[in-house]
């Protein structure tokens, strides 16, 4: 397949790009800087200079593709407008190709809002955090677009060795010698390792049926205090119990999107396992944290 990757230098996108290349597909990646071009070349993709918010320029040089994976996002820019311009230009362009290309849109678990003791599935109505509410019409737009084969993936919170959603804990451990948790230790986070998630994207690319949504969650919901304590142990911090901070404080520090860290939720990745044969390998993040090498 010829696959166009948007966001190929990001946390999720770089893992997906690596897997696309590993499985022998031809990949192109839209990049907005020379640095990012160097990164995607290193991962095995052909860079296409451009910004997702200005698609007419790079669409003019894009070869015919069989699939596009949208994982580009920048919390420091007006993402709603940027992505609206992307979808406005890209979706009709793909439909005109005439080969019903796959279009994978990345949503996210925070679109399900607080679930408490319930476990959200793909059928659960979305109740997004305010900062992400714009994504809901965008994913509906995508799913209803003619002439393409759209699929939505909702990643759980994505971690990797020494980073991803655990980065903030590691930074706290290093700089403050205490790990801070938003909202309370009992707040549950659904989790997925980025390599498992990349595998799910590839299954969706290779065998996903159009107009389906899949949640990419390996762990339905782990109390965040357990992750914080594992990081504290890893960094040999004497006081294992985390400092509890408010959603207001983290929003002030990072932006309103960061209120998502306080969402207590559980989401299920069962449909992806059942329909796509997804078999995640990273099932125990606490043990993984303790055994990270080089941290
Ligand atoms: N990470 C998670 O835990 C998680 C969980 C659920 C959902 N999601 C969703 O998944 C998506 C990707 O998340 P991520 O964590 O992988 O993000 P990330 O690490 O911040 O990566 C964002 C990527 O988007 C690219 N990008 C941003 N604005 C662009 C623009 N205007 N034009 C071209 N490229 C642009 C960046 O390229 P540069 O190299 O130029 O910076 C980078 O490759 C987001 O929509 C996010 O909301 C993430």
Keywords for this entry:
single chain, 295 residues, alpha/beta, 7-stranded parallel β-sheet, 4-stranded mixed β-sheet, 11 helices, 38% helix, 20% strand, globular, binds NADP nicotinamide-adenine-dinucleotide phosphate
Topology:
Layout: E1 2-6, H1 11-22, E2 26-31, H2 34-43, E3 46-49, H3 55-59, E4 67-70, H4 79-97, E5 102-106, H5 135-144, E6 149-155, E7 157-160, E8 163-164, H6 167-175, E9 180-182, E10 188-193, H7 194-207, E11 212-216, E12 219-223, H8 224-234, E13 243-245, H9 247-254, H10 270-276, H11 285-291
Parallel strand pairs: 1-2, 1-4, 2-3, 4-5, 5-6, 6-11, 7-10, 9-13
Antiparallel strand pairs: 7-8, 10-12
This protein binds NADP nicotinamide-adenine-dinucleotide phosphate.
Mean of residue pLDDT values: 97
Low-confidence stretches: none
Reading the helices and strands in chain order gives: EHEHEHEHEHEEEHEEHEEHEHHH
Give the strand order, joined by hyphens, for the main sheet: 3-2-1-4-5-6-11
Number of distinct helices: 11
Beta-strand percentage range: 15-25%
Largest sheet: 7 strands, parallel
> What hetero molecules are in the model?
NADP nicotinamide-adenine-dinucleotide phosphate
Total number of β-strand segments?
13
Secondary structure class reads alpha/beta
Quaternary structure type:
single chain
Percent in helix: 25-40%
Return Rg in Å.
19 Å
Give the termini distance in whole angstroms: 38 Å
**Global outline:** globular
């Amino acid at each position: 397949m010829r696959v166009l990757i948007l966001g190929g230098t990001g946390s999720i996108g770089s893992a997906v790009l690596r897997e696309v290349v590993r499985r022998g597909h031809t990949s192109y990646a839209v990049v907005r800087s020379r640095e990012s071009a160097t990164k995607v070349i290193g991962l095995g993709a052909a860079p296409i200079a451009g910004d997702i918010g200005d698609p007419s320029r790079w669409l003019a040089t894009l070869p015919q593709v069989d699939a596009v994976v949208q994982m580009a996002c920048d919390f420091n820019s007006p993402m709603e407008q940027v992505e609206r311009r992307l979808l406005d230009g890209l979706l009709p362009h793909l439909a005109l190709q005439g080969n019903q290309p796959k279009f994978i849109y990345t949503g996210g678990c925070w679109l399900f809002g607080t679930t408490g003791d319930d476990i959200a599935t793909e059928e659960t109505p979305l109740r997004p955090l305010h900062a992400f509410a714009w994504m809901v019409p965008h994913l509906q737009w995508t799913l209803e677009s003619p002439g393409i084969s759209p699929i939505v993936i909702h990643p759980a919170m994505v971690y990797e060795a020494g980073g991803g959603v655990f980065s903030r804990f590691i930074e706290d451990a290093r700089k403050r010698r205490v790990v801070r948790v938003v909202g309370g230790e009992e707040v549950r986070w659904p989790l997925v390792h980025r390599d498992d998630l990349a595998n799910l994207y590839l299954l969706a690319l290779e065998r996903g049926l159009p107009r389906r949504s899949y949640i990419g969650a390996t762990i339905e919901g782990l109390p965040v205090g357990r992750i914080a304590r594992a990081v504290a142990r890893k960094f040999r911090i004497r006081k294992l119990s985390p400092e509890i901070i408010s959603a207001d404080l983290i929003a002030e520090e990072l932006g309103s999107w960061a209120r998502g860290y306080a969402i207590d939720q559980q989401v299920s990745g069962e449909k992806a396992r059942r329909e796509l044969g997804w078999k995640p390998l990273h099932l125990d993040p606490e043990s993984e944290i303790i055994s990270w090498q080089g941290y």
